[in-house]
Amino acid sequence: MNGSCNVSNFVVRLRGLPWSTTQSEILNFLRGCKVRRIQFITNDQGRSTGECFVVLETKEDIDLAKSYDKNMLGTRYIEVFESSFEAMSDMMKNINNNNSSNSQNNSSNNDNWQEPVVRLRGLPYHSSKNDVMKFFDGLDIAQNGVHISSSKPAGEAFVAFVNMDNALRALEFNRMNMGHRYIEVFKSTYAEARTSIINDTQLMVRQKTANAALQRQGNYMNNTGSGNTGSNYNDNMNQYSNDSSLSNDFDSDDRNGNNFPMSNNDSGSLKRPLAASFTMKLRGVPFEAGKKEIHDFFNPLIPIRIEQENTIRGRPPTWFVEFGSREEANEALTFHKKYLGARYIEIFPLYDDNDRSKMIHRLHGMNDLIGKRPATDTSPVADFNASDEDSWLFEDFSRDDAINALQNQSDGTFLVRPSGTIKGDLVLCVKEGSKVSHYIINVTQELSQSIYKIGDKTFSSMKELLTFYKQRLLDTSPLIRIYPKLRVRTKYKFDGKDEEDLPFKKGQILMIIKKVEPLWWLARNTTGDKGMIPANYVEYIRDDV
Hints:
alpha+beta, Alpha-Beta Plaits, 5 domains, 6-stranded mixed beta sheet, 5-stranded antiparallel beta sheet, 27 strands
């Protein structure tokens, strides 16, 4: 082995990797190269950035690795360029600094850690207890020792092991993959796990209370399987109650010893406001459908409250469905246009802060609205043409340009720009609350067709992707409107000399697609014709946006 002074000369960096890339795939991609080390780069959430450093043996290996630049790994074109050991070290220092709390939690004060419990963060949404047990394959987990939290934060779980030796070994699984997700592993305690279980129990109380109201309407609770769930919670409670001083309080949520208290008073009614942040509005529900059908429609999600608002006679009623968390509410949006019987159901989030107080007032005391004309729904409605690439693709925009353009816009205003770091990828920029969010869109080729991937969702076209997020939250907002492109008015007549020119008359309105050169811009007229125009022949039109 050469010393580290030579290693610095033999490092390459790969960019554009699929998120699920493994070390063996890197070795196969760099076939013929003598590889010493592979270092993947992750963000502060522990997720892959699509980049890695590779330490090689010789200068010849560097040259060979660079010859693979723009070769395919799976369906992605991979960039390969020379780097240095210092660049790799600096990058890893930044990652370690961002995750210092995790490192401190997992690598220090082991002498003070005396309870064989760990906390997991970053679980995929539909992870099961079996998935967690497989993740810790080879370690001895206590009976009923896995609890996956159903309350906030999402993607969290607790695991109790049979002894501290197994728990210490569990820390070595930190940042290993479960599916395509990096899982963070932290030291924990029985008390912390027990607190999570109590929070989940309180959530289940809300669910059961809501379901009790549904029982009075449709008596369908026997089909929900909630009794089994309660049993599982009790099993977990016992597991995390090894401290005898805590066990009495831990095993009962009220002073009568009822873990899941329910009111049997049929005269009672739910009058609290629905939580607008977690509530979906449903349109198109068939007349004959009731709460049971809506409950089944969202399976495996479990609504905690379902309310109906009567509309004008002869029209289908509007339904409101509340979930227990923002994560579940976001997941519910994926059911948009799913069929219930012979009709598809439209689902809209009640997300707009400006209308939230009005909506809560509207939902409070729902029975008062029966037989009355409903108030107008003032939530913004998505209104853009996803097929019109010229309108939403800003080819010459940088990240800073997007921030400057969107920071004073209304929620849901968006644009698409090229990625500044991964050639060929796109970035969806959206105004959400007080921030401008940037969502990477990985673009790959499969059988001569472009594939667009954002997060864990895949689309066959940008039209399909943008349409999908018209009614689905990205973080806090769906896509509502495209940031308007620059418009100009022609000052003179231009006949055009080349085939690529766009002729125009004086006084026409044109949309600027791209400023190709300082004096020549690509533009489109109102009939859809595109071509090059002289910049000094037009003047800006001020848009109040």
